[in-house]
Amino acid sequence: MPRLFFALRPDASERAALADQVAEVGRLTSGRPIPLENLHLTLVFLGERPESLVPVLQDTAARVRSERFRLDLDVIDTWRKPGIAWAGPSAMPPGLQTLQSDLAAALALIGIAPEERPYAAHVTLVRKAQMGYSRPITPSVRWFVRDFVLFVSESTRAGVAYRELACWPLVSAT
Questions:
Q1: pLDDT exceeds 80 at position 147
Q2: Is 94 inside any structural domain?
Q3: C-alpha separations of 30 from 49, 75, 78, 83, 130 in Å
Q4: Domain of 156: which CATH number?
Q5: What is the DSSP string of 110-133?
Q6: Structural domain for 34, as ranges
Q7: Which of 51, 82, 86, 101 gives a 20 to 30 Å CA spacing to 118?
Q8: Per the structure, how many domains does the chain have?
Q9: What is the pLDDT of residues 40-56, one digit of tens each?
Q10: pLDDT band, very low/low/confident/very high, at 174 (cuts 50, 70, 90)
Q11: pLDDT at residue 115 is higher than 90
Q12: For the range 117-122, what are the long-range contacts, defined as Cβ-Cβ under 8 Å and sequence gap of 24 or more?
C-alpha cells in the first residue's frame, strides 16, 4: 500500500534558500541531509492507505478552500528522540493553521481521524542528527504558499522520493 501525505512544497527559489541551512545543519549535527527535492512541510500524514482511496482523497482535498499566505521559516531546532533537525516558524501563521485544520476536518468527514499529537509545522532538514542544534534563521526563509499537494512516498535505489499525485491551488486573498 502506498504511503500518502498532504504537504506544502517549496518552489525552486524557496528550496535554494533552504539549501544552505540543510548543508550547515547536516554538518553541525553529523546527520543525513534531506535531498532538496524532498523538502516539504507536512499538513496531514496519512500513512499506508489503499490505492483505491486516492480518488476519494483528491475529491476531499478539492473541497478545501483556503487563502494563499506567507510562511516565514525563522528557527532551526531538533527533536532528539527521532534525531530530526528541522526549520519552522516561531509563530504559526493563521493561513497555515486554517489550511491544516480545514484539511484535517475534511478528512475526518471521510473517516480519517486526525493525529492525536498537536500539529507541529516544520520542514525536516536532517535525519539521524547526532546532536541537538537550535538557532534563529536570519534572515528568515520567506515562503509564499500558493498550493498544497498530495504526495506518495516511494522507495528507490537512491533512497526515498516523494511523487506528486495531485495539487490544489489556494485562493488569492480578496
A1: yes
A2: yes
A3: 33, 19, 13, 10, 6
A4: 3.90.1140.10
A5: TT-PPPSSPP---EEEEES-SS--
A6: 3-169
A7: 51
A8: 1
A9: 999 999 998 999 999 99
A10: low
A11: no
A12: 120/88, 121/41, 121/71, 121/88, 121/89, 121/92, 121/96, 122/41, 122/86, 122/87, 122/88
- Cell readout for 12 is 525552486
**Is 174 inside a domain boundary?**
no
Q: Classify strands 159-169 and 123-127 as parallel, antiparallel or unpaired.
A: unpaired
Instruction: Give the per-residue pLDDT at 63.
Output: 95
Question: Nine-digit cell at 9?
Answer: 512544497
pTM: 0.93
Residue 151 belongs to a domain = yes
At 119-146, the pLDDT tens digits run: 999 999 999 998 888 999 989 999 999 9
Closest CA to 80 of 128, 34, 32: 128
